[in-house]
Amino acid sequence: MTQTTTTGALYGRLAVLGLALFVYLTAELFPIGALDDLAIGLHVAPATAGLLLTAYAIAAGAATLPAVWASRQLDRRRALTISLVLLALSQVAFGLAPNFTVAALARGVAAVAHGLVWSQVPVVAARYAPDAERGRATAAVFAGSSLGMIAGAPIATGLAHELGWRAASIVLAGAAGATAVLLRAALPETPPPPRSVRTCGTVSPGPVLTVCLVTIALVVGHYVSYTYLTLLIAPAGLSGSLLVVVLAGYGIAGLFGVTLVGRVLDAHPRRTALAVAMTLTCAVTALGIAHLGWIVFVLVMLWGTAAAALPVILQHAVLRTATDAPDIPSGAYVVSYQLGITGGSALGAALLSHTPATSLPLWSGIALAAGTILIITAPAVFGSRLPSRTDRAPRRGAT
User: Fold this and answer.
1) pLDDT value at position 331?
2) Does a structural domain hold residue 163?
3) Which of 229, 263, 283, 286 has fewest C-beta within 10 Å?
4) Which residues, in sequence order, are CB contacts of 121 under 8 Å at separation 6+?
5) What tens digit of pLDDT does each residue of 91-106 get?
6) Contacts of 378 (CB under 8 A, 6+ apart)
7) Tally of CB atoms within 10 A around 37
8) 232 neighbors 287 (Cβ within 8 angstroms)
9) How open is the CA angle 242-246-250, to the nearest 5 degrees?
10) Under a CB-based contact definition with an 8 Å cutoff, are residues 230 and 352 in contact?
11) 340 and 207, same structural domain?
């Protein structure tokens, strides 16, 4: 961002980028709230309908790096706009799908661009922001995903129940199309770094690998227990109508966590990363021994605060490790996150078939502690100083 860019223009761009994450996450989670209706409409069992989520995650993980590589020469504004157009087309096809196979293929269209959106939105946001506010900019756009959990998914579920899942899918298509128009209108031309930077930049595989390993460890630890959150809190009496309160509180706490981390991440990146990782580790692990309802509720709120802030600190670390050519490293981080989700959910399921639910937080704690130790031992990646643009060759496109 140049000196002539106003604060209002920056906030407008960040708001539109956050909206892109909001819409994409809402569409991704749409089958959860409409699962029974989808099963009936597509003439499959609810368990089969649930594969729409699993298949999406697998496709997104597999397509991320190829999509980032294929779009490396595209203007970032154009790449993101095309991604939202693909989401809109995907939702239209999904809403018109006559059977499960077509519905799964329609979801796959959006999954192809998923990794591109989630890896590039934070990178683009950081390019628009001044050096000293890149952490704040990253947090600002991730607030869109937090709002997707709090408001987007419930709104989509409500639309599915009131209008039917097909009509609700078309509404989401309209929202994605409108977001594509806003991206095209609000963002300036944002060309990729020059070819010389992309091919000979200062990206070192060691720090990128460290971020990916930290990501896998922390996300696996999170999802081992998060996948079965309702089972963990039910013995404390947090079920039925109270479950809705807990889930809403979890989402609100996450939005608070993203906001708080955004305020301090630029000035204290390593302390912030450690605080998030340690809070996540302690809160989840303690659930294995907590029994009183109010204590469990507090722990879940701390969990939600740290879990939502987790992508912010990890994405910020990616920007530290690849200041000139962050596209592929950011894509690798997104793949690592998807691997963590898949691995954590699968490990939780395997453990649950042999041990009680109360043991899951202990296993989560082991993985989370491993990720925290990796952060402690990697001060160069999660350290106190993010290289400024004055430390390297001038960049184009961050107008």
Assistant:
1) 84
2) yes
3) 263
4) 17, 20, 21, 80, 141
5) 999 999 999 999 999 9
6) 207, 210, 214
7) 18
8) yes
9) 170
10) no
11) yes
DSSP track, 181-228: HHHHHHSPP-PPPPHHHHHHSS--HHHHHHHHHHHHHHHHHHHHHHTT
Q: What is the CATH number of the domain that holds 344?
A: 1.20.1250.20
What is the rounded distance in angstroms from the CA atom of residue 116 to the CA atom of residue 81?
11
**Does one domain contain both 148 and 290?**
no
R_g of the chain, CA atoms, integer Å = 20
What sign results for the dihedral spanned by CA atoms 92, 94, 99, 101? Answer: positive
Q: Quickly list DSSP for 301-322.
A: HHHHHHHHHHHHHHHHHHHHH-
Tokens 């496109």, located at residue: 397
Q: Which tokens is 16 given?
A: 């539109």
Contact call for residues 125 and 187 (beta carbons, < 8 A): no
pLDDT of residue 147: 87
Question: Are residues 163 and 245 located together in one domain of the fold?
Answer: no
Q: Which domain holds residue 176?
A: 7-192
Structural domain ending residue among the three candidates 169, 192, 215: 192
Q: What is the DSSP letter of 356?
A: -
Q: Which residues of the chain have pLDDT under 70?
A: 1-5, 194-203, 323-324, 384-399
Distance CA 393, CA 202 (A): 11
Looking at the fold, whether 112 and 62 belong to one and the same domain comes out as yes
| Residue reference for tokens 């079965």 | 228
38 and 127 belong to one structural domain = yes
Global pTM reads 0.80
The number of angstroms, rounded, from the C-alpha of 117 to the middle of its chain's C-alpha atoms is 10
Examine the domain organization and report whether 68 and 143 are in the same domain. yes
Question: pLDDT tens across 36-84, in order?
Answer: 888 899 998 877 887 888 788 888 888 888 988 888 888 999 999 999 9
Rounded to a whole number, what is the distance in angstroms from the first to the last CA of the chain?
A: 5
Which of 160, 361, 183 lies closest to 280 in space, CA to CA? 361
Last residue of a domain, one of 170, 192, 214: 192
